[in-house]
UniProtKB/TrEMBL annotation:
InterPro entries, per the entry: Elf1, T_Elf1_sf
Molecular function per GO: RNA polymerase II complex binding; zinc ion binding
Main location: nucleus
Pfam families: Zn_ribbon_Elf1
Keywords: Metal-binding, Nucleus, Transcription, Transcription regulation, Zinc, Zinc-finger
Subcellular location, record wording: Nucleus
Organism of origin: Eleusine coracana subsp. coracana
Gene this protein is translated from: gb17777
Record protein name field: Transcription elongation factor 1 homolog
Gene Ontology CC: transcription elongation factor complex
UniProt record similarity statement: Belongs to the ELOF1 family.
Length: 78
């Protein structure tokens, strides 16, 4: 029997948890995308920091997270 038969096809898995820029916990930030209301939210379940933005059908969790980081940087450089 070939081992190759048992290998599942590799699916690129998109990250939905991220490190928190505030408390620096790994994978403590979760992303929720609500396409019914066209909004998205990231929230850290450790320090409760969160961020909301608009979402569209192509929005990925990583996009929301990146926007949050951008917003943090913008605040820090003001
Ligand atoms: Zn945090």
């Amino acid at each position: 029997m070939s081992k190759l038969l048992a290998q599942p096809k590799k699916q690129p898995k998109l990250d939905t948890t991220f490190p928190c820029p505030f408390c620096n916990h790994r994978d403590s930030v979760d992303c929720f995308i609500d396409l019914e209301h066209n909004c998205a939210r990231v929230v850290c379940f450790v320090c409760q920091e969160n961020f909301s933005t608009k979402a569209h059908p192509l929005t990925e969790p990583v996009d929301v997270y990146a926007e949050w980081i951008d917003a943090c940087v913008a605040v820090n450089t003001q």
